[in-house]
């Protein structure tokens, strides 16, 4: 049996492994796709100026979107516990190789990368793949209900936290608000980490939060790590893993227009190619999806889910698949709508400054409730309600009942990021 720690970069739930943040690179796209994106974006915005109504979806054929059962089988949400173990393996590997020497490891990643969810399920030391912690369980440090502290109060709050054993902060963005009295907790944490007063720990941090706090860390040399970007090959392997778990069978996905293959991935080794694979013509869909999503797995998955189509009679086949043996299971076929034919969110016309402040605030803080959003933006509750309503109708934000916060949607994130950058807001490196 192969050592999983040595296989981290090939782990199907974290195909890119962990890399130093400065080594992260944007997935490439084809010249053809780049030109299409530029022209398509301009046309969509011109249309939005005429009408703020959401553009209806125009399918290439009559195949319906996936049913809930089909989506659960073909494009389910990832198991973040598995991802937690893969992250633990990656950190242990980095420590063993000497590329991670600090007791506190920083994991910086864009929204929807799954790092926050994975760290919230971080494995116990006795589990396979957990990093060295002296045999103690990892403590999850949760933020206080209120974030307004002076320096003395922040010091006392951290004194009450048990940092004597290994600890994890799933998302640093939850520990501050962009106001003078909302900065003390994070500043005190950075001071303690720099002084070596925190022991072994892991800090997960949204890339937007990290962008804001970077100037506090210029001399601290925190050297954050991040999941490797999802290129076409990694996306294909990940989608197959999500659909079939261990990948024991084959998922066949083909384009609706020309029938070109998306999955299974093309075999690069000429000696390993079977007779059928040599006859297949492959689409550039995964490459273009990797570029559109900027290698972000959560964004790519949201677009992938929307792009998939299947026949209605495939629903029963998928529901019964788990009751069959491996040999009896039928191959699950699905069809993929080209990116340019998908109805993806566009930015509604409104006051750029107000809309930008709202969206930037939501990304900085990993989502906010209405009261906190009013504090960090300076926008009245009345105007916030109007802006959020428009953004919700455009699928750019969503109200999450579980923690009562407004958040940017994964499928709307590329549009949000692009517009914030065009409006002059500071954006993350990812």
In total, how many domains does the architecture comprise? Answer: 3
Span between termini = 36 Å
Task: Report the C-alpha radius of gyration, rounded.
Answer: 23 Å
CATH topology-level name of the largest domain: Rossmann fold
* Main sheet makeup: 4 strands, parallel
Helix and strand succession?
A: EHHHEHEHEHEHEHEEHHHEHEHHHEEH
- The count of β-strands is 12
The low-confidence runs, each spanning 5 or more residues with pLDDT under 50, are: 1-9, 48-60, 125-132, 321-332
The largest beta-sheet arranges its strands as 2-5-4-3
Which structural class should the secondary elements be placed in? alpha/beta
Report on the structure:
The protein is an alpha/beta fold and 430 residues long. The chain folds into three domains: 4-23 and 79-227, Rossmann fold; 68-76 and 230-341, no CATH class; 346-408, Winged helix-like DNA-binding domain superfamily/Winged helix DNA-binding domain (Arc Repressor Mutant, subunit A, Orthogonal Bundle), CATH 1.10.10.10. It has 16 helices and twelve strands. A four-stranded parallel beta sheet has the order 2-5-4-3. The chain is globular, with a radius of gyration of 23 Å. The protein starts with 17 loop residues before the first strand and ends in an 8-residue tail after the last helix.
Please give a quick description of this structure:
The protein has 430 residues and is α/β, with parallel strands linked by helices. Helices cover 38% and strands 11% of the residues.
Ordered list of secondary-structure elements with their pairings:
Layout: E1 18-20, H1 31-50, H2 68-74, H3 80-97, E2 104-109, H4 115-119, E3 139-140, H5 151-159, E4 167-169, H6 184-195, E5 201-206, H7 207-213, E6 225-227, H8 232-244, E7 251-255, E8 261-263, H9 275-279, H10 285-292, H11 297-307, E9 308-309, H12 314-319, E10 332-336, H13 352-364, H14 370-377, H15 381-393, E11 397-400, E12 405-408, H16 413-422
């Amino acid at each position: 049996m192969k050592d999983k720690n040595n296989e981290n970069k090939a782990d199907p739930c974290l195909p890119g492994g962990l890399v130093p943040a400065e080594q992260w690179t944007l997935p490439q796209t084809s010249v053809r796709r780049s030109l299409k994106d530029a022209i398509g974006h301009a046309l969509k915005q011109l249309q939005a100026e005429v009408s703020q109504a959401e553009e209806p979806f125009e399918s290439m054929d009559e195949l319906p979107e996936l049913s809930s059962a089909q989506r659960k089988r073909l494009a389910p949400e990832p198991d973040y516990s598995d991802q937690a173990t893969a992250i633990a393996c990656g950190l242990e590997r980095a420590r063993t190789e000497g590329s991670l020497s600090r007791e506190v490891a920083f994991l910086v990643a864009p929204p929807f990368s799954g790092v926050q969810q994975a760290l919230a399920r971080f494995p116990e030391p006795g589990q396979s793949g957990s990093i060295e912690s002296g045999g103690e369980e990892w403590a999850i440090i949760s933020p206080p209900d209120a974030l307004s502290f002076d320096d003395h109060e922040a010091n006392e709050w951290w004194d009450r936290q048990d940092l004597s054993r290994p600890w994890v902060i799933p998302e640093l963005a939850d520990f501050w608000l962009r106001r003078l009295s909302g900065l003390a907790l994070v500043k005190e944490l950075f001071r303690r980490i720099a002084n070596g007063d925190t022991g072994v720990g892991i800090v997960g941090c949204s890339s937007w939060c990290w962008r804001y706090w970077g100037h506090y860390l210029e001399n601290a040399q925190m050297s954050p790590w991040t999941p490797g970007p999802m290129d076409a090959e990694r996306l294909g392997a990940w989608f197959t893993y999500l659909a079939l778990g261990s990948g024991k069978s084959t998922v066949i996905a083909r384009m609706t227009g020309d029938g070109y293959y998306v999955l299974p991935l093309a075999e690069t080794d000429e000696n390993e190619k079977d007779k059928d694979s040599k006859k297949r013509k492959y689409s550039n869909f995964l490459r273009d999806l990797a570029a559109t999503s900027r290698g972000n797995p959560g964004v790519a998955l949201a677009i992938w889910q929307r792009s998939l189509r299947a026949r209605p009679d495939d629903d029963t086949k998928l529901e019964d698949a788990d009751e069959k043996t491996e040999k009896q299971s039928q191959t699950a076929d699905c069809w993929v709508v080209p990116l340019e034919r998908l109805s993806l969110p566009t930015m509604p016309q409104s006051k750029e400054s107000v809309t930008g402040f709202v969206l930037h605030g939501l990304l900085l803080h990993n989502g906010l409730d209405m009261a906190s959003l009013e504090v960090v933006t300076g926008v009245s509750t009345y105007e916030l309600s109007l802006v959020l309503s428009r953004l919700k109708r455009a699928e750019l934000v969503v109200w999450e009942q579980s923690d009562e916060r407004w958040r940017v949607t994964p499928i709307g994130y590329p549009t949000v990021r692009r517009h914030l950058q065009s409006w002059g807001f500071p954006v993350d490196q990812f």
